[in-house]
Amino acid sequence: MVKRLEFDTIDLYLIRVLHTLITERSVSKAAMRLASTQPAVSAQLKKLRALTGDPLLVRSGHRMQPTERALQLVAPATNLLHEAERMFSSRMRAATFDPSRSEAMFRVAASDYLDPLFLPALVAHLKRAAPLVRLELMPLTQDYDYRRHLATGDVDLVIGNWLYPPSELHQGKLVNDEIVCLVSERHPAARNPRGWTAQKYLASEHVAPMPTHPGASGVIDEHLHEQGLERDIAVRASHFSLIPLMVADSLLVLTTGRLFCSRYVEQLPVRVVRCPVAFPPLTYYQLWHDLTHNAGAMRWFREQVREVARGLERRAMPQRVAMRGAA
Q: What is the Cα Rg of the chain in Å?
């Protein structure tokens, strides 16, 4: 047990250092994230080791790995930081966030399903609105445990589509999109749209993205399964932006949002056709944890994400209306 005198030397910043070291698994990365120096963080790690009686981080090959005791401390440290934020949340809300001067770091995990122009547009928008901020963009893949990373503060925001978003996270809708099919100009559905039936759709060979988390089947297949239907997925691809190229040179069918598909019609020999199976709109969300819910910088950042997403939707609307008539 930590002695009383030692316990009195533990301040909130030391808890943040502990949390950052365990989640970053690197003294140098933790120093960057804390806007500190490696010698200072190394000294704090030494103090934490003495307080806990555990090495916390150990060398494993070329990397540092947290010990079992360190992993056990992540949740309590997260809770302490969260409760401290809640204690002073009214002061934080009152503080003015100045994007023109801020050097904040925003970490985002996102899929590229929404629109191939979304992330580039977000970067351009942020560089105009807040030229000094930094942005880290991570892919939302099957191996990325976004719930854990949000809970530990490794990532600030997750952007993607879910049929049923996780209920324990805060969520903000970005856009709703109509589900359509992208096919080659040579595909029977493009040559004879009136003959494109649900039976032919299900019997076709499909290409689909890899699920965004283990055990998931994706929003398209989740909905089909709920209707007692199943399609033939011939190709699973982790690089979603490359799928239109696969469709253009094959008879594969991609089922996704019209906003994404419409970007490729003028670039590739592909066509957007209606989906003969009824789907609810494809809804894209941004998700975040209680940890960042009241932070002024994050409230501002979430609004920028919402503005960029809706701006892309508005600019694409005339083209989408024209294509819907053709489809």
A: 24
